[in-house]
Amino acid sequence: MSETTDAYAHLIDLRRDLHRHPEPAWREFYTTARIVDEIERIGVDELFVGSEVTAGARSSVPDDEELARWFELAADAGADADTLARIEGGYTGAVAVLNEGDGPTVGLRVDIDALPMEESEDAEHAPAAGGFRSETGAMHACGHDAHATIGIGVLEAVKASDFSGTLKVFFQPSEEVIAGGEPLVESGHLDDVDYLLAVHVGLDHPTGEVVAAVGGFLAVSHFRAGFAGEPAHAGANPSEGRNAMQAAATAIQNLYAIPRHEEGATRVNAGVIRGGSASNIIAEEVVVEGEVRGETTALMEYMRERSETVLDAAAEMHLCSVDVESEGYAPSAESDEEVGAIVTEVAEGVEGVDSIVDHAGLGGSEDATFLMQHVQDRGGLASYVGIGTDHPGGHHTATFDVDEESIRIGVEVLSGAIREIAEQRPVAGS
User: Fold this and answer.
1) pTM (two decimals)
2) N or C, fewer C-beta in 10 Å, the chain?
3) pLDDT tens across 358-405, in order?
4) Does the domain formed by 3-217+333-424 have CATH 3.40.190.10?
5) Which fold has domain 219-329?
6) Contact in structure between 264 and 303 (CB atoms under 8 Å)
């Protein structure tokens, strides 16, 4: 093991521990507890946990039974009891604050949740071969275990440096359902942030490639439409029923018929349908879960308004009712080139970085945009940074994994950028 690798061995151990205990949105009990363990080991000036982090209204929160099941899994896995007591009820996540003298306030946002999917057991899958495959039935199939680890590494590196200013590291829950960013903003912790960085590994960029400024985020809104009708015998009395399944099917077909918009890209998807009880019973209740997206927030709102019209009309057509709930929302955003330029400057001097992309589009959505927009609206600057990583399977697949070398690269690029931002204090348009 080289000296450089040895210096990051504890972070690799942390990443593998988090990978072994992945938890979906608002259930990140073990994850938060381990992050708090590491923050306390490093030593910070302020540490906020639980409802202190996500003080605003939360969406897509599981029911009490589901939360209790994951809480017990975390306790059984050895999560600190005192931390668990602070985050019971799904108030997960943490904010760590370093006050290091005069200077600007710089923020780093990392997400910490996993996906509700099974991880590969294939012997060639590194976590399975290395003994750190998921033990929970969920999976870190998008690299958030690496993100959380990078956040800890950056906190540690900045504290040991000559950084002058305030650093806030936001360990944000519930990104995968686009639900953690807004309540984090509402907590007030970003109100004094002058510069914000967010990070994601992979994104189809290989190990050694850094994207200094990711943009092109699609605004997104998730919905849950509950159709309610009237059951009846499908053979003997079909006319006496009001078919919620038929209403849902009509809605799904017509969602995809919403006209595209001439001002930019739009998306719609019905991803989940649940309902019905038997083949010979007119379905009484059916739930459709889906999403709309737009190249801008206005285009997403166009799609959301049209989709609600479609859902209402489909229910009325089949004499049913429908209850439409918003399950998560994030605006569009763009990175500021002034911050991206500093990331580029720093990345050029980091060992292992052999390619730098100044700007690249994401083509997807992320609720880091809530944080970015909040900072930018208050006169600050923000950039979403991509740290390339080789991965054998695509994001959100059972064989996804990260090249752990990207963790070192991410820590060195981001901690260096934070120090340079505090030193240079860029101004928009400069």
Assistant:
1) 0.92
2) N
3) 999 877 889 999 999 999 999 999 999 999 999 999 999 999 999 999
4) no
5) Alpha-Beta Plaits (3.30.70)
6) no
